[in-house]
Specification:
Elements: H1 5-8, H2 11-38, H3 45-52, H4 57-62, H5 64-68, H6 73-81, H7 95-98, H8 109-133, H9 141-153, H10 155-162, H11 167-186, H12 193-203, H13 207-213, H14 215-219, H15 223-244, H16 248-260, H17 270-273, H18 278-296, H19 302-313, H20 352-374, H21 379-405
Helix pairs in contact: 2-9, 2-10, 8-11, 11-12, 11-13, 12-15, 13-19, 15-16, 18-19, 19-21, 20-21
Length: 410
């Protein structure tokens, strides 16, 4: 759709496409907000509130009945049980991350989830703005507008908003760290390292996504800022251990124990297709490959590396398909920053090899954002999506390796 330069010159058709996508995106946002008001079940207000009350949220995750009998946690669960729904505490976040939600616990459960919904809308706008100011700054405005609207119109984004997930929050702060890094490079006389480290540390709330993405800062040789972002969580974990009267090791292992229950319940991640410990071994191998790329890939291939990191971060560990709205950012490889020097940033005029890859990218986007929903994510649709996705990620990774020795063409 975006590849045919000739019809893109037709102003009426371009306006019609944007109008249709805007309408679809608006419907998606409205539906997502309606669901968020009713549900937001993944918000983890209950776990953060328990932590604020000096109650161990990880123990309560193992004994849901105990949590239901504690006020105001009971008020949170009654928002669901009074409507015949089930809800229990699943504190799969490290304590240093739960602490980021503490400001929300001063509000009632219902008020908190409304505020969270509004914040997620702001994070959405922020993500679109930050991507435009970083990896997509030279992209044709029509291309970027269409990609952004497709992201919002897609099922993953709508579900992300509706269940009150934290990926919008985390990805926003990750992109803010990227933006700060870019500005620091433009103005070396201004040290923005502390702010960059804080934003990166906050982004780890969805560490299954942003920990692999953080390798981008290794590529950028921001090792000091990366180390500081990790150190912040080490310090906060120590404080949390004192607050709850638990050991430091327990503060690390307890949330992992809760999270391990969900390993096989993802969308297209390794745990869905590879059972048992083999999925962790595969993830470790991929992580090593990504680290190697981050260290060795040429400095003018940042957008290519970013796209590779986005793709693998969504499947290395547990992710439901609502996190796949981030897939839109993988189009960075098709921008001027991701293409050889002299190639147009207008996606409709790139050379044939890149065009084939972009068609593949768009087909995969259609599958992830719309087709999976049509088939209710049944086994066959997930298998087709998985094969298409992993092959695309593998091909892009091979291109990354080729660029180490020679700046190649995608």
């Amino acid at each position: 759709m975006l590849l045919l330069a000739r019809w893109k010159e037709n102003r009426v058709l371009k306006v019609a496409v944007i109008a249709i996508l805007t309408a679809l995106a608006a419907i998606s946002v409205i539906k997502g907000c309606e669901n968020a008001v009713q549900f937001s079940q993944d918000f983890q207000w209950d776990a953060a509130k328990a932590f604020a009350m000096r109650l161990d949220p990880y123990e309560l995750s193992q004994d849901p009945k105990m949590a239901e009998n504690i006020e105001p946690l009971g008020e949170f669960y009654r928002m669901f049980t009074d409507r015949g729904l089930t809800q229990k505490m699943e504190a799969n976040q490290f304590p240093s991350l739960l602490m980021l939600l503490l400001p929300m616990t001063i509000f009632s459960p219902y008020t908190a989830k409304i505020i969270w919904m509004a914040l997620n809308l702001l994070f959405t706008a922020g993500i679109v703005w930050l991507l435009r100011r970083t990896f997509f700054e030279d992209t044709d405005i029509f291309d970027y507008a269409a990609l952004s609207l497709l992201m919002i119109a897609g099922t993953p984004y709508r579900n992300q908003l509706g269940v009150g997930q934290h990926t919008l929050f985390s990805f926003f702060f990750f992109m803010l760290a990227v933006y700060i890094d870019k500005k620091a490079a433009d103005r070396p006389d201004i040290d923005k390292g502390v702010l960059m480290s804080i934003c990166l540390a906050v982004s780890y709330f969805k560490y299954t996504l942003t920990a692999p993405l953080a390798l981008y800062f290794i590529f950028r040789k921001r090792n000091r800022q990366f180390a500081a972002s990790v150190a912040i969580h080490i310090v906060l974990t120590g404080i949390a251990a004192l607050w709850l009267g638990k050991s430091f090791i327990y503060m690390i292992t307890a949330p992992l124990k809760v999270a391990s229950v969900l390993v096989s319940e993802g969308g297209l991640d390794l745990g869905v297709f590879i059972k048992g410990g083999y999925s962790f071994a595969a993830a470790a191998v991929i992580a090593a490959v990504l680290l190697y790329l981050a260290v060795r890939i040429p400095k003018d291939r940042g957008a290519l590396l970013f796209s590779i990191l986005v793709l693998w971060s969504l499947v290395m560990t547990y992710h439901r398909t609502y996190d796949f709205f981030v897939y839109t950012a993988a189009a960075a490889v098709f921008t001027a920053q991701g293409m050889p020097e002299g190639t147009s940033s207008n996606i409709g005029t790139v050379r044939r090899s890149t065009r084939v890859m972009f068609i593949w990218y768009l087909v995969l986007m259609a599958i992830l954002y719309f087709v999976l929903r049509i088939f209710d994510e049944n086994a066959v649709s997930k298998l087709v999506a998985g094969i298409t996705y992993y092959l695309f990620a593998a091909v892009l990774t091979v291109i990354g390796f080729k660029s180490i020795n020679k700046t190649g063409d995608v």
